[in-house]
Design goal:
With about 160 residues, the chain is an all-alpha fold. Helix content is about 70%, strand content about 0%. The protein is built from nine helices and no strands. The chain has helices at about 10-20, 25-35, 40-55, 60-70, 80-85, 90-100, 105-120, 125-140, 145-155. Helix 7 (about 105-120) packs antiparallel against helix 8 (about 125-140) and helix 8 runs antiparallel to helix 9 (about 145-155). The model has no long low-confidence stretch (mean pLDDT about 95). This is Regulatory protein RecX. It is found in: Cytoplasm. Belongs to the RecX family. Keywords: Cytoplasm. It comes from Aureibaculum flavum.
Length: about 160
């Protein structure tokens, strides 16, 4: 038998409130945490309802914060942000709202800076391999295919 802590309903509520207050969370992260606490289905539903009513849990706020953070800090493109939000079971409406948080001119400016910086870092003498490395890097980070290939040809010509 494993030594799993058994939580009362109130203890679990307080722990989840702290969990959500520390950082924005989505429903799937909260559900995973509740699953790890070995609570009954009724208790889980009551806790999620409590978190929603007291504004600890808000998917739209989470998705906007997620998109801003991943773009500003990790320099992810919209494709990667959308993929990650879908993985977290965020609705299409909330994904659309989240993408509105990213200013289009700032988006393109960040893309140009990131591409030019990466281009100077790649020391590959073979131009084809250099193009591939650069395209792979930008696509992995979630930038749109048309932007990536246009920029790669621009920088390598």
């Amino acid at each position: 038998m494993t030594n799993k802590k058994i939580y009362s309903l109130e203890e679990a509520k307080r722990r989840l409130e702290n969990y959500c207050a520390y950082q924005e969370r989505c429903h799937s992260e909260v559900e995973k945490k509740l699953y790890e606490m070995y609570l009954s289905q009724d208790e889980k539903e009551e806790i999620i309802l409590h978190l929603l009513q007291h504004d600890f849990l808000n998917e739209e706020r989470f998705s906007k914060s997620f998109a801003r953070g991943k773009f500003n800090i990790k320099k992810w493109g919209k494709v990667r942000i959308v993929r990650e939000l879908k993985f977290r079971k965020i609705t299409n409406y909330n994904i659309t709202q989240a993408l509105k948080e990213i200013d289009e001119s700032e988006y393109l400016s960040t893309f140009d800076q990131l591409a030019e910086k990466k281009y100077t870092q790649i020391t590959e003498p073979n131009i084809q391999k250099k193009r591939k490395k650069m395209a792979d890097y930008l696509l992995y980070r979630g930038w749109e295919t048309n932007l990536v290939y246009t920029k790669v040809s621009e920088l390598t010509s």
